[in-house]
Design a protein that fits this description.
The chain is an alpha/beta fold. It is built from seven helices and eight strands; from the N terminus they run H-H-E-H-E-H-E-H-E-H-E-E-E-E-H. It has a single domain, classed as 3-Layer(aba) Sandwich (Rossmann fold), CATH 3.40.50. The chain has helices at residues 6-10, 32-37, 58-69, 87-92, 108-121, 136-149, 206-224, and strands spanning 46-51, 75-79, 100-103, 124-130, 152-157, 169-176, 179-187, 193-199. An eight-stranded mixed β-sheet has the order 3-2-4-5-1-6-7-8, sandwiched between helices.
């Protein structure tokens, strides 16, 4: 550190991003490493963007969070999910089925309207929305609705999105052997962070079991051929 800057930093006349404290306002993710990387967990309110292919573990990542906030008074809305979210899947992830509502429509405007109304309602804790295209204006409206309703919107979009949106948090997800490779592309109030591996095998031991079995079968097939 330059010696001329030391008095200014010590006197708190210059703010450093690394000085940002971990906040109790954030919601724990259920994964200690991710909580550390996110300075406490998921944002309390606002819009979270996950850039990910479908079915690589993105719902496993969200499951502890969804389970912690879902109640009969605070619902979870799933809008335009690419596959059926049934009561068995919810119960397996410790999410009360009666606290979940599914909406399916191919009309983008109806999806956004449903998301905005749900966020603003005050009785929905989280909206999970699968949609590819957003404008900055649309995201700002959704952020305002989330703030007014003290709720959160989780947007799931395809990977490698180039357009930056005014969201609170953007994570890029890639599959790894025991969980997910995560890159924090945007985090409000903090710097982006390079990719790290989130080991989810403790919470989801079947990840290792299934992938080990798949590797054995693949190796056997190569030997036979």
């Amino acid at each position: 550190m330059h010696t001329d800057l030391a008095p200014l930093i010590d006197g708190r006349h210059i703010w450093l991003g690394s000085q940002q404290a971990i906040t109790d306002d954030n919601q724990p993710t259920g994964y200690a490493l991710l909580d550390k990387k996110l300075r406490g967990g998921w944002p309390q309110y606002g819009v979270i963007e996950l850039q990910t292919a479908n079915g690589i573990g993105e719902l496993r990542l969200l499951a502890p969070f969804l389970s912690a906030v879902a109640t009969t008074q605070q619902l979870i809305m799933f809008i335009n999910a690419p596959s059926i979210i049934n009561s068995q899947m919810l119960a397996f992830n410790d999410i009360e089925p009666s606290a979940a509502v599914m909406i399916t429509t191919n009309d983008d405007s109806q999806q956004l309207w449903s998301a905005e109304q749900s966020l603003h309602s005050g009785c929905v804790s989280i909206v999970v929305l699968w949609q590819q295209q957003f404008s900055s204006c649309q995201v700002k409206r959704l952020k305002l609705a989330a703030k007014a309703g003290r709720s959160r919107l989780i947007v799931i979009r395809p990977p490698n999105q180039l357009s930056a949106l005014p969201v609170n948090l953007t994570l890029a997800l890639m599959p790894s052997d025991n969980g997910l490779d995560i890159t924090i592309k945007k985090q409000q109030g903090h710097w982006p962070q390079p990719m790290f591996t989130l080991d989810m095998s403790q919470q989801w031991p079947d990840l290792v079991t299934h992938r080990t079995y798949d590797n054995v079968i693949a190796l056997a097939k190569r030997r036979v051929s």
